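Researcher: Next entry in the queue.
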Amino acid sequence: MAKTQPYDFSLLHKFAIEDTYIVLDINSGIVHSLSKEAWDFLEGWEQAGGDLEQATALLQTTLPLGELEEIRKSFEELIATGALFSSSTVEENYAPRDEQIVKALCLHVAHDCNLRCKYCFAGTGPFGADRSLMDLATGQKALDFLFAASGPRRHVEVDYFGGEPLLNFNVVKELIKYGKEKARETGKILKQTLTTNAVLLTPEIIDYLNQEDVQLILSIDGRPQVHDQMRPFISGKGSFALVDQRIREYLSRQKADTYYVRGTYTHFNLDFCEDVLYLVDRGMKRVSLEPVVASPEQDYALQEEDLPVLKEQYARLAEKWLQYYREGKPFQFFHFNIDLNKGPCLLKRLSGCGAGNEYLAVSPLGDLYPCHQFMENKAFCLGNVFTGIQNQALREDFRQAHVFNKPECRGCWARFFCSGGCHANAYHFHRDLRKPYELGCELQKTRLEYGIYLQVKVWTDRQQEQPQEA
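Model: Structure for this entry, 470 residues:
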């Protein structure tokens, strides 16, 4: 194969976990699992400055000639098919789409809460404003806004959020009914979710939400002592016993896997893998445990020096995930869920969650914000459900905050997986939507590597299970 220029290894991300050698072709998203010999060839190739001929000559002393030629031929075939060192013109040609479509709302039906979580970004419920509840008329207008602003898009979503949304359950019930009616009228498909601390999740409410096909995000942090330290009642008493009881009641009555239990780990439980496994062993098979995001001066905040321990924990969690899978006890850990075959579309890979454009949050009074983490920061108010979006300049700022406009992201191997990270974290740490939160980036890249690794291991297991031809 004729090649006058060295191959550009910045187009690849190489990593090894245990005895598994993995190469990600960044632009195509194709993952290659290599033998140790092929890995050594690739390492030598990179050390030779990307010069394939020089690498082949150097490696003749360490690999048998026949094996060396076979490995080289395999790499050349991958290059020829665009599966390795693939280039991209996406950056040069990419422009955020012009149509202003809203596909999802985070509906803050309650800015009050029955817990006093110490790390709460909502300031224990009111987001620095009043402890108020959304009235029915405002909620209905918000849903009207969603169905109108979604344009031709058929699928739309709403999450009932807080504070604690079940403090306003009567209004939530009416909005669930209203949303379904609007979906029928408009021919759209509405997905409804509810994020709750589970304190008020009685059997009657569980049955109602199941009947109405409302999916739940259930908040619990893990082991009792971990949960109770950060998520007490107003009285100061720990909430684990009641929350655990309510969630397990929900699991016993649910129709399908229409939930996630979502927790937060902090500096106080750096061994968070034990919290994930604790929840899994109690029957909670769909788990998301998120790193706390907090100012460094907070005693519970994660620090840069915590990174080695946290990375070890993700390694341990990946090992346990694989063990449970092979034992026939699979569970889902949200951050290991990577679909290497049918991942997000290109626009989502570049723009992420769509905050400030496709995704908006609504206050109890109907004010519109880019997402729940900007709630009640008046500098980020986009408009109101009664009057529509008025701050188009702010919306454009969010629209332009894609990976190609973030200097730290443009050369990062993970850019098409993380989409540039969380806008809110970037703003809160750097007052700049285009400067990612560094600690979050490191954790994200660690989780991605282990998620890819697990996909490779599962694929390998399945290949080995296939019956061999005679």
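Model: The chain is about 40% helix and 15% strand.
Researcher: Noted, moving on.
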